[in-house]
Amino acid sequence: MRPQLLTAALASGAFAARPFLNEPDIGLEEFLGDIEPGTLPNISAMATLHDFDFAARNYLPQSNYSWFRHGAGGEWSYRNNLEAFQRYTFKQRALTDITKVRNSLPTTILGHNFSAPFYISPAAQGIRCHPEAESGLVKGAAAGDILYIASLFPSHTLEPFSNHHPAAEGQILFQQLYLDNNDTNTKALLARSEKAGAAAIVFTVDAVADGNRPRRRRFESSFNPDEELSLFNWEYYDKLASLTDLPVVVKGINSVEDAKLAVEHKVPAIIISNHGGRQVDGVSSAIETALEIHNEAPEVFKQTEVWADGGVHYGTDVIKLLALGVKAIGLGRSFMYSNVYGTEGVERAIEILKYEIAIDAANLGISDLKEINPDWVRWNQNGWYS
């Protein structure tokens, strides 16, 4: 927090009234100087994932940036996603052999090999960041050898998607699927996904109604809310899974109860997520839900693959989730922001996060990321803006 903001908070006698900083002040603006709005900073200045947020905000039209940045309601869930990680501190160890920790970054996701335990989450409208739209995301993921999950609403349709955004030979892509009351449409989408070469379906279940997103709504020409409410249940998931030979992952689990139900319905993987804080305000973050599952039903982490997304910006964020048993961590906004530079930006973002995971793990005394467990973190909250 900047000194003047800290002083103001102390003077008021309540940290609860503090201004929220979208990204930490670690010298980027001072380094760039008086950069003109609409100007893209040199990519060499991008040292953290937060830097890409600043670059996108400074460069993109406000309506485009707000499309990615907005959250639901008063955006508490958006802020909590970012801040929840710092409520838990590490137990740092010394004099351990950390020389091979970088070699432990590679992982498997649903049996597929990747170079790191993080992936690009599905996010729509890549064209709002870069003229080549999703191409930078796919190519960047291929270059970094990480998983890319394609949004159901890309800037191009599914068939041209595979043609206009060529992946490297053998690259694994998963395809997002939203709830749809029309079974005919669902069957068609599954068939198109299989034809496009998707290796898995990621079924998003936390968007059964329109999200209350005032930041986005300001840029709409008229207020025409979508009042449709979708009726889906676990029996629908069973039916959906029977319509395809592909594994069907469930994205949008945010309670231990639903995690246990997913296991009962033989879901191969779940994604702990609150939709980036975009659907409903006042819900828990990924690390809070992962901790709840660990405390109340730790067996879930052995019964199905558990992934998580929401608010991840640092290597330490990834490590804390891995410590709880999360197998893979998704990032959406950060990669969309990095895509303002196209493929080069996405590649740099991947390199930054890999670098941070390795050096942070080393400095914590972790020898092997695959051997990490909950004992590496103090799970009693430290009171950080809680």
Automatic annotation (TrEMBL):
The active site is at residue 275. Keywords: Flavoprotein, FMN, Oxidoreductase. FMN binds at residues 122-124, 151, 176, 204, 251, 273, 332-333. GO terms for molecular function: FMN binding; oxidoreductase activity. The keyword Magnesium does not apply. Its cofactor is FMN. Glyoxylate binds at residues 178, 213, 275, 278. Residues 41-382 form the FMN hydroxy acid dehydrogenase domain. Pfam families: FMN_dh (PF01070). InterPro entries: Aldolase_TIM (IPR013785), Alpha-hydoxy_acid_DH_FMN (IPR012133), FMN-dep_DH (IPR000262), FMN_HAD (IPR037396), FMN_hydac_DH_AS (IPR008259). Belongs to the FMN-dependent alpha-hydroxy acid dehydrogenase family. This is FMN hydroxy acid dehydrogenase domain-containing protein. The lineage of its organism: Eukaryota, Fungi, Dikarya, Ascomycota, Pezizomycotina.
